[in-house]
C-alpha cells in the first residue's frame, strides 16, 4: 500500500493555495482563515491516517514538513484566544475589514504570523516533493 495519499496531499495544498488566493485577490479574510485552518487540520489528519495505517513507518521529509506546518499554523489560534480573553488587542477592531480604531491590532492578529509560518513549511514541503519527483524521474 502506498503510504502517500495523493488526495490528502492535494487537499492540503489546494486549501492552502485557496486561502492565499482569497486573502490576496478577493480580500475575503474570514473565508481565507477558514480555508487555512482546514488545510492545517487536513495536514494533521494525514499524519493520523498514516500512523493508523502503518504505525511503524517514518514519515518522509515532505510529510513531516506538512505536519510541522500544520502544527505551526494552528498554534496561533489558542494564542489569539488567550489574548482576546485577557482583553489584549484592539477593543474597537472591525473583524470584517480589519480596520482598527484603538488598541494594538498586532496582538489581535498574532495568529497570522503562525499561519504564515505554517504556509512556509507547506511551501518547503511542496518543493521537497518536486525535488524528489525530479530525482525519481532522472534515476
Overview of this structure, please?
This protein has 139 residues and is an all-alpha fold. The protein has a domain at 6-75 and 115-138. Helices cover 74% and strands 3% of the residues. It is built from 5 helices and 2 strands. It has helices spanning 6-24, 29-53, 61-86, 105-108, 110-138; strands at 93-94, 99-100. Strands 1-2 form a two-stranded antiparallel ribbon. The chain is elongated, with a radius of gyration of 17 Å.
Order of helices and strands: HHHEEHH
- Derived structural class: mainly alpha
Q: Give the CA-CA distance, first to last residue.
A: 22 Å
Number of helices: 5
List low-pLDDT spans.
Answer: none
Mean pLDDT: 88
What overall form do the CA principal axes indicate? Answer: elongated
User: Strand order within the widest sheet?
Assistant: 1-2
Give the fraction of residues assigned to helices: over 70%
**Computed Rg:** 17 Å
- Main sheet: strands, sense, barrel: 2 strands, antiparallel
Number of strands: 2
Amino acid at each position: 500500500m502506498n503510504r502517500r495519499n495523493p488526495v490528502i496531499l492535494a487537499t492540503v495544498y489546494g486549501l492552502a493555495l485557496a486561502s492565499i488566493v482569497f486573502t490576496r485577490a478577493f480580500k475575503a479574510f474570514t473565508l481565507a482563515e477558514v480555508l487555512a485552518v482546514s488545510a492545517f487540520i487536513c495536514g494533521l489528519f494525514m499524519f493520523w491516517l498514516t500512523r493508523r495505517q502503518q504505525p511503524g513507518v517514518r514519515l518522509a521529509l515532505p510529510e513531516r514538513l506538512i505536519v510541522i506546518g500544520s502544527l505551526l499554523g494552528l498554534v496561533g489560534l489558542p494564542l489569539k484566544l488567550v489574548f482576546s480573553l485577557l482583553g489584549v488587542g484592539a477593543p474597537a477592531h472591525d473583524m470584517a475589514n480589519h480596520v482598527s480604531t484603538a488598541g494594538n491590532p498586532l496582538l489581535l492578529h498574532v495568529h497570522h504570523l503562525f499561519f504564515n509560518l505554517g504556509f512556509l513549511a507547506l511551501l518547503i514541503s511542496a518543493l521537497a516533493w518536486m525535488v524528489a519527483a525530479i530525482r525519481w524521474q532522472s534515476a
